[in-house]
Amino acid sequence: MTDVFGLSHKDISPVSGQAKHEQVIFCADERSGLHAIIAIYNTALGPSLGGTRFYPYGSEQAALADVLNLSRAMAYKNALAGLDLGGGKAVIIGDPTKDKSEALLRAYGRFVQSLGGRYFTACDVGTYSEDMDIVARESSYVTGRTVANGGAGDSSILTAYGVFQGMRAAAEHVHGTPTLRGRRVGVEGVGKVGHRLVDHLVEDGAEVVICDVSEQAVERVRLRHPQVEVVADQFALTGSDIDVYAPCALGGALDDETVARLRAKIVCGGANNQLAHPGVEKELADRGILYAPDYVVNSGGVIQVADEIHGFDMDRAKAKATQIYDTTLKIFATAAEDGVPPAVAADRLAERRMSEVGRIRGIWLGR
What we know:
It is built from 16 helices and twelve strands. By secondary structure, the chain is an alpha/beta fold.
């Protein structure tokens, strides 16, 4: 049994160690094999929203550390995306290729429903829109459903679009023009988000270099864009002559060794939790590398699924995701003015909105 209240700083990452979560729910249904954790970081701006990750964690503690980190990040992401939503996340412990079933997903949906709207779920690693359709058969608080069922569909569409907008802002800040034309961009991970980002970059006139552990994912990109260069792995990519590094695989891509090797002057990608540990943001700044905070630029996906709560409209959602460009520029300007890394400036802006709007939402309405 994991003692969530007794975890020390050695048990979880420094980021989650700083978090003060409102609620952490352990969910189990032995017959379907469901073992899940739902974490609600805060509801200062509104009900919490975050996806469900289905992953074969090595232990319950590892799953707990991940969901605490991810739910906190969602609070900051939703705040800077201008959404009236708090931060939440869920993890299902297991191998989605073996353990996923209708019964398990419906059992999970019952637990989401039991929270009475404090948490809205959506897709994440290991879950898809079709899975959300099944979860929604037991819960009213599900987004990211298929278009056929009135949902927003694949959220990677606006996630990639938002990352591209953030990258345009970074190019504007560094080079004085909001385009990647003629720039060499290295994309690590060309899965759901990465391959769509490549589409935007190629259309904008960038030279693109990619790597991925999946040969199938690489081949899909090469068939669509034969001019794209492929390198063996992340080590080769980050050590190559690139202007922009776009981590779009799993988190923790920016560790001490990678930052020391990196030749790019901009880091802007779709992966969550890119900084391997606190202090990496300062290492990047000290080396003159501009870091576009991941939870800012990859918020297009949550903007897409959040729009579904009130009846999905792609044009409206895309217009809001376009604002990621302006938000990213504002963060760079604030960071320069305050003399801090962009990640610190982004945190401060998010915390300010959560504090100010959260206080206003506390005004008694007389009922």
